[in-house]
Design brief:
By secondary structure, this protein is mainly β. 10% of the residues lie in helices and 54% in strands. Strands 1, 2, 3, 4, 5, 6 and 7 form a seven-stranded antiparallel sheet that branches.
């Protein structure tokens, strides 16, 4: 069980870019967003989760440490990885999907 952050190393990604990445991987994306300072309590998912940040920022808190996502960053959460999250000062918009199997 782990969480892996892949920082965006190029220009900011658009909504269309992110949707294309999910389509190439055969994943069905779901968009969500939260206001500044919102928090998620610790929880885990049964499936591998892939998440990209479009706007704003969010910090995921795991047993391995904190991982801050900014626009274009990708987070992979293995199945059963406990995590909590805190939204950054400008809110956040993300897209995510679960990898079956």
């Amino acid at each position: 069980m782990s969480a892996r952050l892949t920082p965006n190393s190029g220009p900011p990604l658009s909504r269309e870019d992110l949707l294309a990445r999910f389509a190439e991987a055969g994943l069905r994306p779901r968009w969500w967003g939260n206001a500044a300072g919102d928090e998620y309590g610790s929880h885990a998912h049964e499936h591998h989760k892939v998440l990209y940040c479009l706007e704003g920022s969010i910090t995921f808190h795991t047993e391995e440490g904190d991982l801050e996502l900014r626009p274009g960053d990708r987070l992979d959460l293995d199945a059963d990885t406990a995590h909590a999250a805190t939204v950054g000062p400008n809110g956040v918009t993300c897209v995510e999907a679960y990898v079956e199997g």
